[in-house]
Input
Amino acid sequence: MKIYTKFHLNKENVLASAMHHNRTCVLICLTNGIIELWDYRMSVLLQTFTDHNGPVRSVDFHPTKEIFASSGDDSTVKIWSLNKPKPIYILRGHLDAVRTVFFHPKEPWLISASDDQSIRIWNWQSRKEIACLLGHSDYVMCANFHPRDYLVVSASLDSTACVWDISKLQKQQSNPFYNNHQGNLTVPVKNILKENIFSDIPPKFTMDEHKKCVNWASFHPSQNLIVTCSDDNEVLTWKYTSTKISLANRYTGHTGPVTSVVFHPLEKYIISTSKDRSFLVFSLTTHNTIKKYGKNNKRFWHLSTILNRNLLSATTDSGVVIFKINKDRKVFSIDQEKILLLNSSKQVEFRAGKYGATYGMTLPYASLKSLCEEGSSFNGISYNTLHHTILVNNTKNIYFKIRLPENTYSGIEPNIIISGTGTMAKFVNNDSYVVYDEIKNQIYLYSIHDKQLALIKVNGDDTLKNIFVFNRDLFLLYDSGICLYNLTSKQIKMNLDLECAKEVILSKNNKYFAIRNKYSISIFDTNLKLISSTEVKTKIKSFAWNEDNILVFSTQSHLLFMLLNAETGIIKTINGTFYVIEVNGNNVLYMDGTDFFSEIEIDLTECYYKKSLYNNDIACIMDTAENSRLVGKKIVADTSEAGFSNVAINFTDDSDLKFNLALKSNNLQVAHDMAVTLDKKELWSKLTSHAIIQGNTELTETCLRRQGDLEKLSFLYLLCGSKSKSKELESYAYAKNDPRCLFQYSIYYDSPMTRINSLNMLGCYGLSYLVAKVNGDCDRMKKILQSANIKEDDIVWPDNKNLTDSLIKKPLKNGFKNWPLKPSTEGANENFITRY
Output
C-alpha cells in the first residue's frame, strides 16, 4: 500500500477541513476564527472568510449548491457563499460550542452537534430549527446524516454513540397538515415537529462498548456498518439492521486517543487518526493493520472524505494533508473488444461489449489474492489471447505466468505455470515475453514455453521505470530518457532525450507514436522523428488515439484533443477520476475510480474542423461551418487564423469583424460597405492605405473625401493628373477662404493666378508681386502695388532671380483610373469558394 500526497499546507492551529465534491477546493478552519478556501491542485489561496468569534470547529460544503456551513465556539452555525467573505445568515439556538456541522445529501437540512449535549437539525432554506435530538449526557462530539437512509449517528463524551431514526421528520416535511381549500398550514411546522416527534423519543440504538469518551462516529457509504473511535485507543465497527445493532469487530494499534475515524469511500479500509502522531489503515476483511503513517511527528486531529472518490483530508499540528491510498487506475489489458481487468478484490475478469453498448461484468476467471499482500496491488497485467494466459507482477518483485480457465469460476485459485523474480513482465507476441529484473538490472526474453532466448543488459546509470512493447521493439522508459531496443537485431535503435516519460502508445494505423509525461505530450513518427509536442498546466492522466490520428487525452478536470500539428482544444469538462482507455469514432471508453468501464459520446466537430484547416480542405471547412453547431465567433477566429479570411467573412454579421476580415482577404468592396455602415474615421484611414496598395484610385478618393483630408486628396489628383477634379478642390478652397490650400494647389498645378491670390489673402504682397512679375502679368503687378500702397523699389528680390520653373512639371500618370494589377490564375480553393 502506498500513500500519495496531493496537497500539503504548512499552517498551525488548523482544527478541521472539508473538500468540495466536484471542484479541487478545500476549506480549512482555524483557531483564530478564520476560514480559508484553497485550491489544492494549484496550492493557491482563493478566499478568506472572517466572522466567527473564536475557534472554528467544523466546515462542510453543500453537495450541489455554491454554499458551505461552519460552526465554532461562539455557539453559532453560519451559512456562507463561496464568493463572499461574510456569512449570508446565522443560525442561533445552541447554548455552547458547536463541534460539527454537516449538510444532508438530499434534503435541505443541516445537522449540528454541540457541547450543550444537543443535536439540532435545521432547514437551511427556511433558516429555522426543525428538530432537536436530546439523549446524550455530555458534550456531543459529532453528528452526521446517513448517506442514503433517514438516520443520524452521533458520538459523545458520555462514552456512547447513538443512532437516531429521523424518517418521521422527512414525512412531516414532505406532507404537513394543510387546509383543504387554501393550502395553508393549520399549525406551524416547528410546533408539529416539536410536539409529535422529538419531545420524548429516545435514540433508536445506543452503542456503549467504549470505555472512555467517544470522539467520532461514521456510517459506511454502502453497507449497514458504523465505525466509532474513542479515548480508549480503540476503533469499533457495528453492524445494524432495522431492529438491532451489535458489535462487529475491534481494531487496535493506536497508543493514544483516537480522534477521528472514517470508512474509505471505495475500498474495504478503515482509516483512523490519533494523538499518537499517526494514522492507521485497517482492513475490513482481515481486521488487521495494513499501514501506519506519520507526518513529521505531528498529532492528527480530523479526517474527511468525499463520496465515491479516493481522496481524504487530514488535519495535523502542522497543517492540512490531502492524500489518496493507492492509485485510482486499475490494472488492465485490452485486446480488440475484450478488456481483462484486475478488480479491487484482485480477481481476473473480462469486460466484453461493442462500442455503443455497456461493457458488462463477467464472473471472475481466477482470484489472485494469494499472490499479493493485503493492502498492496499488482503493478501490471499482460494478456496472451492465443494461449489464454496472463502475466502479472506484484510489488514484491515477483512475476507470475498464469493460465486462465476456459470457463468462469468465482474465487478459483490461479493455475500458475511459472513464477520468478521480475519487476515487469509483458508479452511481446503470442510466442514470447520479456521479464525485467530490477535487482540484476537485466531484461530476459523468453519463449512461450519459458525458454530463455536473449539477455538484455539495461543501463545501470538510470532507473528503468516502464517497458512498452510494439511489434519487436521495446520502449525502455528511464527518468532521463527513452531507449528503443529492437529484439530482432538485438541492438539499440535510438535514444530519446525525453525525461520522465510515463506512457507510450501507437496510433491505430501504426504510423505515429505518442509519448506522455506528467505535463506534456510528444508525437513521433515510426523513425522517432519529432512531429509536434504540447504542454498543459495540469497533470495528464491518460490518452488514446482514434482512427483519424486524433489524440484524446484527459487531465484532472478536462477531456481534450491534440492534432498532429500540436493544435489542442477542450472537448468537455469532467468531474472525478477519468482514464481514457480507447476512442472509436465519437465514443470514448473510459474507466473511473471504481471497477467499472463506461462509454460517453463526445463531439469532435471542432477537432475535425481544425484538422481541415490544417490540411487546407476547403470543402470540409465550408461544410463544417455551414452545418455544424460551432459558435460563429469560434469558426471565424480559427478560420481567419489559419489564413482563410475569405471563408471566415461569410460566417459573421459583426460589421467591425467583417471589415477587418475583408482587409485581410483584400476584399475592398466588402470593406467599403462595412466602412459606410460604421462610418468611423479610423476605418476609412485603414481602407485608404489598402486601396493605395492595390492602386484603387477611385476608392482612395472616396475614402479621403470621407475623411475630409483635402491635402492628401489634392496630392492624389496630382499623381493621377486629374485637372478637372483639382479645379473642384480649388473652388472649394476659395469658398472656405483657405489661402494655405490655395497656395499648395498653385504649386501642384502650376497656377500663377491662384498663387498670387493665396499670397494676397495672406498679406504677402511683396511675394505676390514677384510671382506676377515673373509670369509677366503687368496689370496684376499694378493692382498689387496699389492695394499694398508700396513701391516696386521697396520689394526685395531673392538671390536666384531666374527661379521661374514650377516645382512639379507634370503628373506621374495622365487620367484618373485605377492602376493595373498583375493578373493571377484562380486556384481550386478560390473556385470552390466562389460557388458559395
Notes: The mean pLDDT is 82. The longest strand covers residues 3-10. The first helix runs from residue 167 to 174.
